[in-house]
Amino acid sequence: GALWAGLTAGAVELVDVTFRGNEATSASPGAGVAGAMRLVIGGTGRASLRRVLFEGNQARTFGALHVRPQLYAADAGSTRLEDVTFRSNSIGAPTGANATAWFAEVRGSSELVAQRVRITGNNAGSSLPAELIVSALESATVRIDNLLVADGDGRGLHLAGGDTSTVLAGHLTVAGNLSTGLGLVAAGASSVRLESSILWGNGFVAPDDLDTFGTTPSVDRATGPRALVSVSRAMVTAGECTTATEANICLLYTSPSPRDR
Question: Rounded distance, CA 93 to CA 112, Å?
């Protein structure tokens, strides 16, 4: 790939950078290679990506960490993405635990924050991988706000919490992915919550917008400012809208949010 960075103290910051057409290969299954970038953030290290574009990068290995790019945070480190776009990246030999755009594993008491991130059209030629996989373990914290995940040829977004970690995701739009749009996993004593989000048009054969696993993740389907807003396909065709929730069909957010102004 184009960049490998690891630090246990200090900071790395990328602003107004484009990674395009990079490629990484490895003969070792499970090797943490990424088509464009790999960050290993531990200790008190800090990483910040702002206005970064990842486009047309490719990795041709297989294994759980075969991603583009990979983010890994441990200890008390922090990683922040703002106004980042992943577009038309791909992997060559998917095995199920891979991400076609971005894989993030957050551990220790570290924090991952992603705001205004757009992930579209990343492909693997298989329904197994997701465009984005985020896994929080131990006492880590993940906060995601204003995220678009769309038009992948597999799953859209997979969010998982384990141990005593906290995952809060809001203002998501997950649409047009050929397999499950959003998978939520809450394991152990973790807190995984989804609110104020659009899930629409995922699933090739039948609607498959949201799957939940483990102990029940918190999904706000009620009315109110943080609720999921549902629009049925029939009513979209008729040019009408309802705020009543419906099974497997959820719709909501427009960007930018008033909070972004």
Answer: 28
E strand segments, 76-181: 78-87, 90-91, 99-106, 111-120, 130-136, 141-150, 155-161, 166-175
Helix (H) or strand (E) holding 24: strand 23-24
For residue 102, what pLDDT band results from cuts at 50, 70 and 90? confident
pLDDT digits (tens, 9 = 90+) for 138-181: 999 999 999 999 999 888 999 999 999 999 999 999 999 999 99
Reference 165, options 243, 74, 55, 228; nearest CA is: 74
Alpha carbon 45 to its chain centroid, in Å, reads 22
CA dist 205 and 177 (Å) reads 11
Distance CA 137, CA 153 (A): 28
Chain centre to alpha carbon of residue 125: 19
DSSP state of 233: H
Residue 229, token pair as written in the block: 């807003």
Max CA pair span of the chain: 56
Q: Is the pTM above the cut of 0.85?
A: no
CB-based burial of residue 84 (10 Å sphere; 0-12 exposed, 13-18 middle, 19+ buried)? Answer: buried
Helical ranges in the chain per DSSP H: 233-238
Q: Cβ contacts of residue 250 below 8 Å, gap of 6+?
A: 197, 198, 199, 200, 209, 210, 221, 228, 229, 230
127 neighbors 155 (Cβ within 8 angstroms): yes
